[in-house]
Design a protein that fits this description.
The structure is a single chain. The protein contains seven helices and two strands; from the N terminus they run E-E-H-H-H-H-H-H-H. The protein has a two-stranded antiparallel sheet. With 229 residues, it is an all-alpha fold. A hairpin with a 5-residue loop joins strand 1 and strand 2.
């Protein structure tokens, strides 16, 4: 059984810094200086709202710019039926769950036992959102060594996972608005990136094939718009 070595180094801090400005700018008003004593701590309390401190308001746009923002948005191509979209996104969702399951099994990463959930025996025992949460927790706790990811992209790992989170929402919520063609292809591409960073060649091939099939169907519908009716 392969057990990866853990990097026990401390987490890199990504705390957001305080506002660098120490002045308050109100819309249409001058600058009112706000000084701090030299020894006074400027660290925000944990429960402080960022907007309680110094703020800046941008000038309102001219009437010409404002009118362009108020006009109707252009229509983007939508050639897939909602059932076809659901089918595509469900395939991506299920295949990503399998990808995460295989990754966890291969490297023997721990899965916390929860009293309200069954132990994981098959990929569908956890929803994709739960797999994402688990992988993100392992990454932020430095339980996943960079060497097991594609090109050691541990810093990009969480972002790649989060980009795929809409997959489950899109596949499971039937009341959602229909998606445009580019958005559907984008979600398949997000799934492919997850497979790539987890170094799952079979999953990558599946996502690539699904992308090509879906794109081909969209092109066919564009060429024969009558088939949408």
């Amino acid at each position: 059984m392969y057990t990866p070595g853990w990097d026990q180094g401390p987490l890199a801090s990504s705390e957001s810094s305080d506002f660098s400005g120490n002045t308050y700018l109100s819309h249409g008003a001058g600058i009112s200086p706000r000084t701090y004593s030299k020894g006074q701590s400027q660290k925000r309390p944990a429960n402080r709202d960022d907007f309680d401190g110094p703020n800046q308001f941008l000038e309102k746009p001219s009437s010409n710019i404002g009118s362009t923002h108020d006009r109707d948005l252009p229509q983007v191509p939508t050639n897939l039926f909602v059932q076809e979209q659901d089918n595509v996104l469900s395939q991506v969702n299920d295949r990503l769950s399998q990808c995460a399951f295989d990754f966890m099994a291969k490297y023997q990463f721990p899965i916390p036992l929860e009293p309200d959930k069954r132990p994981v025996q098959v990929p569908s025992d956890r929803e994709w959102t739960e797999w994402v949460y688990l992988l993100k927790r392992l990454a932020t706790k430095r339980r996943i060594p960079a060497r097991v990811l594609y090109n050691g992209q541990i810093k990009q790992f969480v972002t790649v996972l989060e980009n795929s989170l809409e997959m489950r929402h899109a596949a499971k919520h039937q009341s959602r608005p229909i998606k445009d063609d580019r958005n559907v292809l984008q979600l398949i591409s997000a799934g492919l990136q997850v497979a790539k960073i987890l170094k799952d060649a079979n999953c990558m091939e599946f996502m690539d094939s699904l992308y090509i099939q879906t794109e081909s169907l969209i092109r066919e519908r564009k060429a024969n718009p009558g088939c949408m009716s």
